[in-house]
Please model this.
Amino acid sequence: MNNLSVYKSKLRIVFMGTPEFAVPSLKILIENNYNVVAVVTAPDKPAGRGMLMHESAVKKFARENNIYLLQPEKLKSFEFTEQLLELKPDLQIVVAFRMLPEVIWKMPLIGTFNLHASLLPQYRGAAPINWAIINGEKETGATTFFLEHEIDTGKIILQEKVKITEEETAGELHDELMHVGAELVLKTVQLIDEGNYSLTPQTFSAEIKSAPKLFTETCRINWNNSVQQIHNLIRGLSPYPAAFTKLNGKTVKIFRSQKISIDNYPLSINNSPGNISTDGKSFLRIQCADGLLEILELQLEGKKKIKTEEFLRGFRFDEKNMKCENI
Model:
């Protein structure tokens, strides 16, 4: 077993997480000499063209740092429950992991806390980073809270605010919150270890916005919407799963866009949402309800992601494909 003399705390911590987003939170605990007795992550899965078995980012880090690893297929299984009981955790930390059954999150003496990428109670759900940008928020953040029965509703321990810039994409905000969240996890563990923390119940009101799972239709661009709405949708879904439109029957994913001033490019009376204007060399603009949106980076079905200039060198527009198919 681990020698407690090398740790700054007697807390026995079980860390649960899977993707890259969770790695900095685990890493910062190890770097600060906290006693992570085990890491729980998703089972290996086949991925890529060769369908080779793929390890999660958290598993790779745990292996490289010789941390005891568990990869349960079923979180409700008797075997997994027994394995956790044997570890005698004082505290469990969840960062980007599956929904836990009550028997698991209630097991530790202190409890189980989760890191969520929003300022709860706003944006409870699976895709808080995406929806904050899609909805045009100027601010978001990260929250640590103790798990309770209803998802993302437990008492708040700490929060950290983060500004969202006008051109920031979901991928960029993800990376920022990944590190802000790690610092918040460390602060939360420090406070819990000292017994010096207070809990704030979440409030409920009609103004609370949710962050549901993203579906294909969520990602389809409606050119009848405003320039700002569509610009927010594009950056809120970039780089994954990506906003898309249809051009000449083919799917085109759009990753970056730029709002065009209506003063410089007044609307034509004959233009309708979805109409395309281009010089065939350097710019590609699409009509929205109240103006033009310039496309900066995109991907045609079956091709790689490229800048607009490169796209225009290989794609020829004619009268039949000067309009995006609209909803």
